[in-house]
Fold:
Amino acid sequence: MLTREQFLPHEMRIVAALRMQGTSDEQVVVRVKSENLFQYPTERMVANRATVCLRRLDAMVPTDAVCAARGIDPKTAVEAASSLTRLTASGTPTQADQAIFYSMICRYDIVRELVLVEVGERLQNFDYAFTAVDLNAFMTRFTTEYPDAARWTEATVKRIKGSLRQTLRHAGLIGEGQGPESELLSPLFLDSDVERALVQLGEQSLIAALTGRAVMERGSRQKRRRPCYHPGDRSHHQYRYSFPQERRGGACPLRARLSGNLAPCAAFARAPVQRGLFGQQGHRQ
Structure:
């Protein structure tokens, strides 16, 4: 359950480094506890936190059924998960935070649901506000739809909401502090190594939800497809003010074409005007 574990960046780095050294899970717990690697004042939570970190790393490796559903090779998925473990252990702080965030998405259904539904849909709709009211509404819906969550007490729900907000903050999806920036979502700029591993794991929908890249790509495609006509062509006056240069009477800045075999706009503007059958100004040839 996502309550007291929180993000655990320091602990995740230590456990991931031990695993990359080939240390068994049992020995990881033993070494962390005996050598006080987490630097906790008491040993009460050491074994529990080490086990939590190990389970998060294990959760990044998809099962055979999940690999089949995503259409990915299980061996490639194992290698990608190992790459994320390596980034957690010895990568830059940004790489480590993003890899840890992905391990939490894999480990906790509530984090994946929050990212794919709440964060992803808001970025898709250019709605960057994510207030405490929105988080409360999400928790109400989640506890209604998931039977196990229906048994959570009010105190448990409160702790989980705090952990979720802290997780989004560590991942870079919301701002620090308690000010207005803490209630504004920002698209995540994924590290190239992290993104490569996510692609190998078949997490394209997750990448789109985190980065909003599907929105940006869609918008750029629409901009490229938008026709660009010369302002003298009155038959297409609805596109006349698409660009600032046209409002000033200048030439069109893009080499757009009306069809596949016509000249660019600059040559199009210099072409002679042909009269139509009814004496109206027609298309330039």
User: Anything to note?
Assistant: The longest helix spans residues 154-171. The longest strand covers residues 281-284.
